[in-house]
Amino acid sequence: METTPKPHAWKVLLAFAIIYFVWGSTYLSIRIGVREVPPFLFAAMRFAVAGTALYAWTRARGTPAPTARQWGAACFLAVLIFVFDYGLLFWAERRVPSGIAAVMLATIPVFMALGEIIVLRTQRLTGRLGIALLLGIAGVAVLVGPAMNLGGAPVDRAGAIALIVAAVSWSTASSLSRKLPQPASKAMSSGLQMLAGGILLFLASAMLGELRGFHLHAVSRAAWLALAYLIVAGSIVAFTAYVWLIHHESPTKVGTYAYVNPVVAVVIGYFFGGEPLGPRTILGTLFVLVSVVVITTAGKQEPKTVLAIATQPSADAE
């Protein structure tokens, strides 16, 4: 039996550096872009181009074309992931600092855990998990709550609500994706969803009236560079590094980007974006990150009522 040769250490370190720092830096790039380009339109530009490139690349490598059912599933997931999650993230970054936006979206594991406990009933609430969930909620309260005397203005209420809806939408899509037909190739699946998402974001932008009065020639070089960075570095290079890593490292190690990205986003926003970094931001970030670390590293405790049917076939086996 052949074994996959172990990659050079420098390649592993480079791949981790890419997903840590490139994905963490994309939040500031979004904020730069949406200052001049309407948010849903800016998101549409990013994902339509990146999705087309990734889809064409996978097809050129001989990956089979998606079936009609896979296209339908991709469009459904694209509504949740790209229209609601990314669309609202881009919209919120007109109101919320990029670092705070990254921290708010880091609560996705919190909402996924709540969904599994309350709605799906596939996980049991333990003391450790309960404390982690409370810490995550407390972190959001610290960032948003105006009554807390922590210095600095609280996060814009509308922006915060949009980011919470975005996090819930992503967590819902993550749960549903296991039940929907998708291409076996992760690259094809992502390219398909990005392409569908880009098209749907263009439609959402048009329906919201973002195209009225918008002129491409009025966009500055800085915004175009931000878009190019999001497409090339954020969507293509970082995704390639991520896919390569999950084939050579454990999912637990690769998943650490979820803890590092918000910290990178906060630091980059402070040093390069002039964003505030006071006690409110530091404490809220700390609460959220501790919550995410505990939730993602805790062993899953299934309810006894679910164990009786755990051996039955399900859509997860597809």
Characterization of the model:
The protein is mainly α. The protein has one domain. The chain is built from 13 helices and no strands. The chain has helices at residues 9-34, 39-60, 68-92, 98-105, 108-119, 127-144, 157-177, 186-207, 221-246, 251-254, 257-273, 279-297, 304-307. Helix 1 crosses helix 4 (98-105). It starts with 8 loop residues before the first helix and ends in an 11-residue tail after the last helix. Mean pLDDT is 87; it is low at 304-318.
Major sheet characteristics: none
What is the helical fraction, as a range of percent? over 70%
Over the alpha carbons, how many angstroms does the gyration radius reach?
20 Å
Query: How many structural domains in the coordinates?
Result: 1
Distinct helical segment count: 13
Low-confidence stretches: 304-318
- Form type: globular
Q: CA-to-CA gap between the ends?
A: 26 Å
Mean pLDDT: 87
Number of strands: 0
Q: Helix and strand succession? A: HHHHHHHHHHHHH
Class from secondary-structure proportions: mainly alpha
The portion of residues forming beta strands comes to under 5%
